[in-house]
Amino acid sequence: MSQAGTADAGESSSGATEGGRAGTHGGGEGQGGGTGGRFRAVVGAYAVSGYGNYLNLIALSLFSFQVTGSAFGVGALMALRLFAGFLAGLGSAALAARTTRLRIMVGADISQGVAMTVLALCADRTPVWLLGCAVVVTGAGNVCFTVALRSAVPAMVGPEARTRANGLLVTGRSIATVLGFASAAPVIAFGGYGAAFALNAASFAVCAVALLALRPRTDAGDQEPEEPGREEGAGRPGRRRPWRGAAGLPGLLLGMILLRGVDALASSSHNVALPVVAHAAEPSAPALFMTRFWVAWAVGTIAAHLVLKRAGKGKAWGERAFAWGTLAMSVCFVAAFTGLPAAGLVAVAACAGFADGWTEIVYTSRLQAAPDRQRSRLFGMSATAETAGFAVGTVLAAAALEALPALSVVGVFHGTAVLAALFLLAFAVTTARSPSRTHGSEGDTHGTRPGTGTPPGA
């Protein structure tokens, strides 16, 4: 999960120009704009592109099987997409140091839209190499867009409103997930793969046009001086150390990113195992089983946003809240594979969604508390960890399911996440009791310099 190095003069020079970049987004909300109409419009645009993405997940998987003619081909293309996202995560901080986050998001939308348009036009005669190119573009583009958006939220709404803003983004994504999955079958049935790809391309176009019209402020000047010697390589412009991205980051923050990667590995198990269980539990209607599960999950994520919105006023949630949420989420996902009746499954899925939404909001808000020039680096590291964890987990879970029941596989994978969450909790407690800490409880400060006091919560 090492991120491309930003611990050098290249990032310092980037920080020196951030104020100028922010000036190019004068139509944005400003540092204290809050989650008003402009940001909600950005959330709407994000949800539209998210709908296209989730529709495309199903369409592209089925289309890959049609083009390659084998499960191995589908797996190879999925691995290629994940590898492209992994590389994009490594390079996202370096890219953000050279241009604005708004340009990154618009560029990612345009490139993905072009790729989907080409597939839509060539749906009847798509060669494998062309499909592979489209997979690479969408894999890298999705990660670049996500890293840029998450790291830009504090500049869009102001630091105090970031938790509510992240809740809105999670809500929009949850709704997009349900609608995308639910509409995939009828869209493909009535219009074919070409229609699905065209709809996905249109969703990217809508998002890009909305961002260009709204021009939200995505970059903010960070005037905090660097601690002497904190970032090796300062003063040597142009020299980047791609595997030194963790230099100068507090241990708790790195622990959260590591836990996020382990959580992604664990989550791959239930994503792989759920279709297997759906066919076994309801062989006549497996799609209904999965729809019921994911709709309940989405309702839970929305509930998490509403609870945090009410309970989080004036309160900063930190590492412990994230660890407890990850632990609860893993327990709920394991419970979902214990053969519960339909009502019990819906309840457990909703609880898993609540914990999932809770951890997403808390985690994202915590990383956004870092200085502006450090955020792209952190979210790039996070994207790399999540992509790597999910990719490795998918391969291992698929292999394990050939020999073991779904409950055993999901239990082992999510048990690993539970152990990692307990380790982070223990580390957080030990760190809080350390005499070197100036604040004994999490969330006592909203300072942004890493390594000084308790890291701000989310």
From TrEMBL:
TM ranges = 43-65, 71-97, 129-149, 195-214, 246-267, 287-308, 320-337, 343-363, 383-401, 407-429
Gene3D superfamilies recorded? MFS general substrate transporter like domains (1.20.1250.20)
> What segments bear the compositional bias annotation Low complexity?
1-16
Report the membrane topology from the UniProt record: Multi-pass membrane protein
Q: Which Pfam families match?
A: MFS_1 (PF07690)
The protein's location, in the record's own words, is: Cell membrane
Q: Where is this region: Disordered?
A: 1-34, 219-243, 434-458
Per the record, where are the segments of Gly residues compositional bias? 17-34
Task: Provide the alphabetized UniProt keywords.
Answer: Cell membrane, Membrane, Transmembrane, Transmembrane helix
Which domain of life does the protein's organism represent?
Answer: Bacteria
PANTHER family found in the cross-reference section: INTEGRAL MEMBRANE EFFLUX PROTEIN-RELATED, STAPHYLOFERRIN A TRANSPORTER
Under what name is this protein listed?
A: MFS transporter
In its UniProt entry, the species of origin is given as Streptomyces albidoflavus
Q: The organism's lineage? A: Bacteria, Bacillati, Actinomycetota, Actinomycetes, Kitasatosporales
